[in-house]
Amino acid sequence: MIDVLLLRNYNTRLVVICTMLLGCACGLMGGFLLLRKRSLMGDTLSHATLPGVCVAFFVGVLLGGQGKSLPLLLLGATVSGVLGCATVLFIRNNSRIKDDAAMGIVLSVYFGAGVALLTMVTKMPDGAAAGLESFIYGKTASMVLSDFWLLTVVTLCVLGLSAVLFKEFRLLCFDEVYASAQGWPVRLLDGLLLALVTAVTVAGLQAVGLILIIAFLITPAAAARFWTDRLDRMLLLSVVIGGASGWLGASVSALVPNLPAGALIVLVAASCFLLSMLCGTQRGVLVRLMRQLRLKRSIGRQHLLRALYEILEADGERGDGISIRPVAFRQVRGRRTWSDQQLRRCLRLAYNDGLIDAVSKEDGIILTEAGLEAAAQVTRNHRLWELYLIEYADVATSRVDRDADAVEHVLGEKLVALLEAKLVKLSSADALEVPASPHPITPGD
Amino acid sequence: MSAVPKVKIQALPSVADSKSLPLVIRDLTVAYHRKPVVWDIDLEIPEGKLVSIVGPNGAGKSTLIKACLDLIPRSSGEVSIYGETYRKERKRVGYVPQRESVDWDFPVSALDVVAMGTYGQLGWFRRVNKRSKALALQALDRVGLADYAHRQISQLSGGQQQRTFLARALVQDADIYFMDEPFAAVDAATERAIVELLKELQQRGKTCLVVHHDLATVPQYFDWTVLLNMRVVAAGPTKEIFTQENLRKTYGGKLSLLSEAAEELMRIQ
Questions:
Q1: If we measure between CA atoms, which residue out of A148, A169, A188 comes closest to residue A28?
Q2: CB-CB contact of B50 with B198 (8 Å)
Q3: What are chain A's domains?
Q4: How far apart, in whole angstroms, are the C-alpha atoms of residue A97 and residue A89?
Q5: What is the full DSSP assignment across chain B?
Q6: Which residues of A touch B107 (CB under 8 A)?
Q7: Residue A291 touches chain B, beta carbons under 8 Å
Q8: Which of A23, B49, B71, B133 is most solvent-facing, going by the fewest CB within 10 Å?
Q9: Does A49 contact B at CB distance below 8 Å?
Q10: B73 and chain A in contact, CB less than 8 A
Q11: Largest alpha-carbon pair distance within chain B?
Q12: Nearest to B40 by CA among B88, B80, B91, B5
């Protein structure tokens, strides 16, 4: 095992380095493909290479009897892959059929033609030995030094051009129309991007095969998107994930006999994707759940505090201003449409935060000093926002409470300051006072 | 076509005059799939005006703008910008596309988007440098988004996204701006910010063509108006051509609600 990981064996070393290079190139081009919303185009391209491979084989046999010349086969793959994409564009531009349908048609027709031709190849006298099936599923074991050089050149081209044309590609992927208005040759750039994708696809045919290459292109990029909101970092990460998938997949395949490298590489990349989807720091599922939970808790806390404040306030109007006193659970419960359980959860959290002193059936709910201060703050923000809505957004007073509720929980300090400046005259409140509610407060049941 | 009278508000300027005009369109026709979308447009826009382009859905408002910017092929006709082709005067033209035309989930920040306005000047291969960034930040500041420069664009509100697009056009410091529905679905604050910006551009002698939907605000915001429904129904100073009669011609009979709005406007004026 150590031997494999340290690449002591020459053949293993070659295969692992090759797939790693391919992974880097795939990760980068996949990033652009994904953002250009051309993932399916990549799939069409790769499937459309098969008839070209077979035709190239026939041509090779006709020319010199030897069909298995790699440059010729790859040339055939390139030509028919590009032809496939051109067919898609032709159908799209000259009929009312949409992109996805056009790609579906072209992909299956070309692949079907390829399979038919392949059957003919295998029935030829020389055909059985041709091993063209490896183009479908990939066969890393068949890689030789020339493959290494090919992949090195392709990877360097892809990395170099993407670095030099980063700005141009970014503009193309984000806003093609604007790029065109600015005078960029959009068709040329688009063609260049497609050419690079084609180069990577064709170079990768032998390693992972034409069915799986699309996964190798798209998966690392899609995984990278979960971790960052910046294009340069996303592409870099995509390159790393692609490279690592290639390295790991090929290594495991070398360790365990009869496990195909192409499939393993894709599975490793898929694992990276799954992990990223769950744990990604920018858009991962867990992070988003956490954010939602935090927001929900904060909203619950604000509702609780405002309910308590408004109850105390109503009492204060009859007597000697607002002071802390116990409030019955039932009274708070009637303030909003929350269940006993929801309210209890809010209370427990507020207790943990030191906002309320004690909760018991007999004593009711008692705010702490800090709690009262926070409650006043929350109520104040709510009312400032209500006043703003009434004053500037022409919302009917009776609807204000609900609309205010939707936004106030995300009010930042800056916005609050702005509201204060705008409304201080209106509410005739000084900077720290809680303005009166602009609508009658429904008392609890 | 000759049966349709072409609307000419002013006498045709001499060649020397039309050199200085920001936008002159002659006999422009654009067709998609052989179906004409805008037809036989003749238009002259004087310098320093805030021009609204108004018309019903499918009237060809965006198409007109795109044809001016060489973004779609013209079936016939000519467009000249300051007496030259668009290709030659590109640097003097700022373009604000419709907000929905891009994917706002794209991994770039507001600053990145605005910096795209400088790509034309940067030219091939050169990276976004400090100067571009400073210019972009300045433009963001002008639309009140300096604090949001490093936010990813999906975390901006619709109005903020619209203002980002405006900033991208501003960063070019163009002389004529084409804006495709900058007021579409924006909040009140953004609407005010955009209007202020338009007025400021006008004060600096810039010309702005704005596709606009809200008839109620046309006389308030724009001193020039083009009423469009495949053809130019009327074009000229808003005060003169924004009449109920012309609006009815533009929108046809089916828009009682809109004629009500126009009546309301007449009352206000």
A1: A169
A2: yes
A3: 2-283 (1.10.3470.10), 288-426 (1.10.10.10)
A4: 11
A5: -TTSPPP-SSPPPPHHHHHH-SEEEEEEEEEETTEEEEEEEEEEE-TT-EEEEE--TTSSHHHHHHHHTTSS--SEEEEEBTTB-HHHHGGGEEEE--GGGS-TTSS-BHHHHHHGGGHHHH-SSPPP-HHHHHHHHHHHHHTT-GGGTTSBGGGS-HHHHHHHHHHHHHTTT-SEEEES-TTTT--HHHHHHHHHHHHHHHHTT-EEEEE---GGGHHHH-SEEEEEESEEEEEEEHHHH--HHHHHHHH-TT-HHHHHHHHHHHHH-
A6: 35, 225, 228-231, 234
A7: no
A8: B133
A9: no
A10: no
A11: 58
A12: B5
Buried b (16+ CB within 10 A) or exposed e, B147-166: ebbebbbeebeebbbbbbbb
H or E segment and range at residue A364: strand A364-367
Q: pTM of the entire structure? A: 0.84
How far are the Cα atoms of A99, B152, B208 from residue A94, in angstroms, in the given order? 12, 38, 36
Return the structure tokens found at B222.
């724009």
Strands B176-179 and B207-211: what pairing?
parallel
Q: In terms of CA atoms, which chain B residue is nearest residue A95?
A: B33
User: How many CB atoms lie under 10 A from the CB of residue A329?
Assistant: 18
B152: which strand partners?
B109
* pLDDT, tens digit (0-9, with 9 covering 90-100), for B155-182: 998 899 999 999 999 998 899 999 999 9
pLDDT at A64: 74
Partners of residue A38 in chain B, C-beta under 8 Å? none
Tokens of A1: 């095992």
Q: Are A419 and A385 in contact (CB under 8 A)?
A: yes
Q: Please write the tens of the pLDDT for every residue from B84-116.
A: 999 999 999 999 999 999 999 999 999 999 999
| DSSP assignment of A326-351 | -B-HHHHHTTTT--HHHHHHHHHHHH
Tokens matching residue A294: 């935090």
Please tell me the least confidently modeled range out of A54-68, A92-106, A152-166: A54-68
SS3 A433: coil
In terms of phi and psi (left: phi > 0; alpha: psi -120 to 50; beta: otherwise), the region of A291 is: alpha
Which one, of B101, B75, B36, B33, lies nearest residue A96 by Cα? B33
Per residue in B198-233, pLDDT (tens digit) is 999 999 999 999 999 889 899 999 999 999 998 999
Kindly indicate the confidence band of residue B2, based on its pLDDT and cuts at 50, 70 and 90: very low
Cβ distance of B101 and A175 shorter than 8 Å: yes
CA distance A152 to chain B (A): 23
What is residue A1's three-state secondary structure? coil
* Contact predicate A428/A417, CB 8 Å: no
Beta-carbon separation of A168 and B124 below 8 A:
yes
Task: Supply the ipTM of this predicted assembly.
Answer: 0.87
- A-B CB pairs within 8 A amount to 72
Residue of A144, A228, A237, A159 lying closest to A200 (CA atoms): A159
Which sign, positive or negative, has the C-alpha torsion B236, B242, B248, B250?
Answer: positive
